[in-house]
Amino acid sequence: MSSFAASKPVSLPVRRDVPAVEVRNLRKEFRRRDRRAGRFARRRMPALSDITFTIKRGECVAILGQNGSGKSTLVRLLSTLLINDGGEARIFGHDAFRDTRAIRQLVNRVSVEASFFKKMSASENLSYAARFYGMPPSKTRTEIPRILEAVGFPADRRRESMENLSRGMQQKVALARALLTSPVLLLLDEPTTGLDPRSKLEVQEFIREVRATHDATILLCTHDMAEAEALADRVGLLDRGELLFLEPVEDVKRRYGVETLEQAFFAATGRAFEEEAHEDDEYREVFG
Amino acid sequence: MTAIGATLRQELIGLGGIVERNVYLTKRYLLWDIAFMVWTIANTLTIVFIARAVHLSPAQENELATKLLVGAVIWAFLGIIFEFVTETVAWERWEGTIEYTFMAPLSRTTHLFGMGAYAVLYGLIRATILFFAVALFIGIHLPNANFGAALALLGIASISFIGIGMMTSVLPLVSPEKGAQLGFVAQGMMLAVSGVYYPVSVMPEWMQSIAKISPATYALRGDRASIVDGAGLAWADVWPLLVIAVVAIPLGLGIFKRGERYAKKHGKLKRSG
């Protein structure tokens, strides 16, 4: 597999004397229709309640949580796609809600949906994304084939429409899109959800490779406990908008006197991890 | 390179990226575009044939047909600009790419201008094809036409059109389900008060007052004078367009940025529908 390290970052305002991510009492709530209280009634649903944590440079942190726990809201807040209702978040010392241009240079993201222009090819989609980060055609001509090769995307399919590619292939292109801009903070929001076992293992292998060869800090949001345990230095549990813990897996197990993260979740919340989401969790979901 | 120089370079590359993406998409949807062009030509014919039905002398009939054609072409041109700029949000939301675009380090000004620049280019090509296709079909004679002046005026008017398009492009951010359609309401209202198929003087006083602040009024008046009478670029049409542009562009950007903030505050940036 080719290395990701050759990817040249655009000039990035990265401070080395501060943590990669500092989140203090971060709060976000949404107003949602309350069908139970009447036709026009609305209520405020806390999506994140006073979240506090830090991530060191180069660290990989996994945040576990069920659907509606607030994982995607956290990722969107850190990637300047949502505005907070309280607290603060800093990325390499930059205020995530005020210094958005600097943050956008530093951060990129892979989400559960690959999200591409379906009629355009992998190369065209990547070149469109790269332009926004100041990469001219002279650079993308060499960088796009290189990064696609690095993620194991077949060279003969680069010019094929995205709509003809499998979910696994699309997710590889999504990973290539995020790595192409050399982010120093990579936000991975359920990157392997819905993938077949082989594609899932490949994507997990890419994440390890990125950590080994690229100066990136990774925040991985997932509901796959095995994935979190395998990839992350520390694991956090986000439950109904509250961060219950964030520490190395062994410390979590010791704290609750359990053998597995599933058991730790049960000990911390009184519910099984596989349990169906409560109706309130649906209200807490950011985007329907 | 200085920080300002580097930022400017990055913005220009980003602007080029938006134009490049639209070129890719136009190529991919070329057959659909041709089908849409056929529909636009048919629609324009239904309007221009009215000149044949009113039993005028051949010269008067030719003049009326030309005036109707100019109105229909500008309607179509404006439709393309509004469609492209409004789709800045609607299309990306549909494809699911909106969050990636909005989290990229590109200013919204460059983003919207990129969409507007491609819309003007694409709209001018379509408007030219539409104009000559219908003129040939109906048999309109244009012995005095000053096409250069007509095209230049349309180009100047485009700046204001982009500004107004920016204002309407915020609607899908506020209402993901119906916002895009409301953009067409704005387009229709603007043309209704601007004398699209009739002189502004036939409208009620209050509508004539609104016509004075519509850029389409000056584009229609100037282009009709250039095509029918061969008039050059008239300052009386140019300066109001420049004044409206100076107001419309910052206003459009300001409104869009407020809409973007609202969407980010309430979690409406990404939603299907």
Features:
A: 288 residues, alpha/beta, B: 273 residues, mainly alpha
Task: Explain this structure.
The complex is a heterodimer of chains A (288) and B (273). Chain A has ten helices and ten strands. By secondary structure, chain A is an alpha/beta fold. In chain A, the strands form two sheets. Chain A has a six-stranded mixed sheet with strand order 6-7-8-3-9-10, with helices on both faces. Chain A has a four-stranded antiparallel sheet with strand order 2-1-4-5. In chain A, a hairpin with a 2-residue loop joins strand 9 (234-239) and strand 10 (242-247). The longest helix of chain A is centred in the C-terminal third of the chain and has 17 residues, at 197-213. With 273 residues, chain B is an all-alpha fold. Chain B is built from twelve helices and no strands. In chain B, helix 1 (3-28) runs parallel beside helix 6 (108-138). The longest helix of chain B has 38 residues, at 58-95.
Question: Brief overview, please?
Answer:
The complex is a heterodimer of chains A (288) and B (273). With 288 residues, chain A is of the alpha/beta class.
Q: What is the chain-wise order of helices and strands of chain B?
A: HHHHHHHHHHHH
Strand order of the largest sheet of chain A: 6-7-8-3-9-10
Integer average pLDDT of chain B: 90
N-to-C order of helices and strands of chain A: EEEHEEHEHHHEHEHEEHHH
Model regions low in confidence, pLDDT < 50 over at least 5 residues of chain A:
5-10
Q: In percent, how much strand structure appears in the residues of chain A?
A: 15-25%
Tell me the strand percentage band of chain B: under 5%
Q: What's the assembly state of these chains? A: heterodimer
Radius of gyration of chain B: 20 Å
Query: Sheet with the most strands of chain A?
Result: 6 strands, mixed
- Rounded mean pLDDT score of chain A: 87
The major beta sheet of chain B can be summarized as:
none
Overall morphology of chain B: globular
Shape of chain A: globular
